[in-house]
Amino acid sequence: MPALPPVAELPRWIREHSMSHRIISAYNICLGLESWVQYQAGFCREEKDKALIQCRILGYLFHHFPSDDMGSFVRAIVTANGKNANGRNEALLDLGECYYVYFVKLFMSNKGHTPAPSSHPSRRSVDDLVAKIKDELKDAPQNHQTAKKKALIRDGFKCVVTKVYDRRTAEENQGMELAVINGMRSAHTECAHIFPESINSDTTPGSKREDYAATIWAVLELFGHRDLRERLNGANIHRLDNVMTLERSVHDDFDRLKIYFTATEVPHRYKFEAVREFFLAERPGYVTLSTPDAEQYPLPNPAYLAIHAACAKVAHLSGAAEHIEEILRHMEDTRVLAEDGRSSDVLYTAILSSMHAVAVRGSHVICSNVWEE
Questions:
Q1: In 3-state terms, what secondary structure has residue 174?
Q2: Which of 92, 157, 303, 355 is the most exposed place for a label (fewest CB within 10 A)?
């Protein structure tokens, strides 16, 4: 987990921003917090590691912010720092914890089963297959299944990264089957959501899940996209610009924040990047997304992919991703908490994964309006 870079290494656009002095001042708060955690706080090792993750999530967001509208994010840091001297560092760490739980943890829990599209034993041409799916989708409710079918049409029945055919579709199509026999690859594909569909699941009014979802949208608004909730609320989480067809292994790496798409100057052409070279093996350096009809089958939203990419970079640079994966590995081996509480983090993450409840650290509910002035 590398230390936060000095101010001189902030992105050029920040140093040239009209409010650069305010942004840099907020970044210096994060540098000061990091120094306090390392040398003055008196934390035990585990507490120090977690606190460093929290402050470095905040700090690395300055280096990988997914938009040029940092106003709300900067105000959140300045506001937390404006607490009384005895509570300002704790308030800043709570803000970092908000991003850990409601941003990094959100994307890393993007796990959902992709039902296979309904099939028929007879084999069809691609045009017939598209027509059949379109007919099935008339007046269909917006859900994971219909999103999968529409994404398959838009993406040419292939993984957008590896370009392998969707195996179930190839089984039904003579042309695709022949292509596979002649060397084209096929594999099981899944409908990958950029923003997880779990955000809007079971958000009964007054429930803890409703609180959880509301806090997520509040945190995401700090990235300058204040219409996210309106655009992705309810069943809209399945809209086509929030999904894409991915081969199963690619989908898993995407959800674990191992891979991400970085925009280029060419619209809808992305540099395919990863946190380690291992995850790029046998995968292309660039991915170009295309659609047969931009109005009926819109492409994945570049802003959504930028937020996912920012989360991937920040999660791994801050150590948050490694921490979460360590907890999840521990969960597989631990079913009963130690009496001395050493496994409290396991319970903490398990609760978030299974219930999407409001995050609790000890008896203190975090992220309670720490961004409000």
A1: helix
A2: 355
Strand spans (E) along 45-120: none
Tell me which H or E stretch contains 58.
helix 45-63
Q: Which residue has the tokens 């096929």?
A: 186
217-273 pLDDT, tens digit per residue, is: 888 888 888 888 889 888 899 999 999 999 999 999 999 999 999 999 999 999 999
Q: How confident is the model at residue 340 (pLDDT cuts 50, 70, 90)?
A: low
Phi-psi region of 4 (alpha: psi -120 to 50; beta: other; left: phi over 0): beta
Q: Which residues pair with 263 in a beta bridge?
A: 270
Distance CA(286)–CA(185), nearest Å, equals 19
Residue 207 in contact with residue 166, Cβ under 8 Å? no
Exposure string for 242-271, b = 16+ CB within 10 A, e = fewer: bbbbbbebbbebbbbbbbbbeeeeeebebe
- Separation between Cα atoms, residue 282 and residue 135, nearest integer Å: 37
Q: Which residues of 53-76 are buried (b: 16+ CB within 10 A; e: fewer)?
A: bbbbbbbbbbbebbeeebeebbbb
Measured CA to CA, the distance from residue 281 to residue 285 in angstroms comes to 10
CB 132 within 8 Å of CB 119: no
- Which residues neighbour 210 within 8 Å (Cβ) at sequence distance 6 or greater? 203, 204
H or E element in which residue 365 lies: strand 364-365
